[in-house]
Design goal:
alpha+beta, Aminopeptidase, 8 strands, three-stranded antiparallel β-sheet, 175 residues, 30% strand
Length: 175
């Protein structure tokens, strides 16, 4: 199920996205705030992609492959909604990762707003969560810009400061 925003094309990933996924997730620049670091082997990217494809098959939604309307054949990032464990609680998680060439252009905000809109309007979920490392100020600004609020911390990286947990709740609508 492909979606579009003003500037982006969001589509389900395919096996053909493996090279783009490995390029983005294997780039140390895209992992400067990820304590686990970048992917180092193509089979790690293959495993990640297979998990996304399975989520799409089982749930009918998941991480999108993201390109711009100007260059629809060039994947600039991946992001969207999928189930993620927060400790031992399964939550609907907003996540994204863009290649450095896409940074600073508002794409993460545009993708995040589209994902929240999809979750609330189409999936009809009551809330969406996001996890961000405490020093990742750019992502914190994105989450706050799309109306997410910090509600908690999650001690998810042994020996490091806890991650910040953000949440957005579906707006009440009059019937």
């Amino acid at each position: 199920m492909q979606r579009t925003t003003d500037r982006l094309i969001l589509r389900p990933p395919t096996p053909d996205d493996l090279a783009s996924l490995f390029a983005i997730y294997g780039d140390p620049a895209t992992h400067q705030f990820n304590p686990f670091g970048p992917l180092t082997q193509r089979d790690q990217a293959h495993s990640l992609l297979n998990g996304w494809l399975a989520h799409w098959l089982e749930q009918g939604y998941g991480q999108w492959a993201i390109s711009t309307r100007e260059t629809p054949d060039e994947v600039i990032g991946f992001g969207g909604l999928d189930a993620r464990l927060y400790g031992d609680v399964l939550r609907l998680n907003l996540g994204y990762r863009f290649g450095p060439q896409a940074w600073g252009q508002g794409f993460a905000t545009e993708l995040s707003q589209a994902a929240l809109d999809f979750g609330f309007a189409e999936l009809r979920v009551p809330e969406v969560y996001a996890i961000v490392r405490p020093l990742h100020y750019a992502s914190i600004r994105v989450l706050e810009k799309v109306g997410m609020s910090r509600i908690d911390t999650l001690d998810d990286v042994p020996g490091q400061a806890p991650s910040l947990v953000y949440r957005s709740m579906r707006p009440n609508t009059a019937v």
